[in-house]
């Protein structure tokens, strides 16, 4: 038996879901920063 796999697992959620949520949040933040930069560039013309 793997010593890291105890009998009382605290969280049984799928890691792929958490990874997808993390990717979506970071992608959204970078997209938001990019759109703000585009808006500032267009407004300064």
Automatic annotation (TrEMBL):
The chain crosses the membrane at residues 21-40. InterPro entries: YqzM. It comes from the Bacteria. Keywords: Membrane, Transmembrane, Transmembrane helix. This is YqzM family protein. It comes from Lysinibacillus zambalensis. The lineage of its organism: Bacteria, Bacillati, Bacillota, Bacilli, Bacillales.
């Amino acid at each position: 038996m793997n010593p890291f796999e105890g009998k009382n697992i605290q969280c049984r959620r799928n890691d792929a879901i958490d990874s997808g949520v993390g990717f979506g949040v970071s992608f959204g933040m970078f997209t938001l920063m990019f759109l703000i930069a585009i808006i500032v560039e267009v407004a300064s013309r």
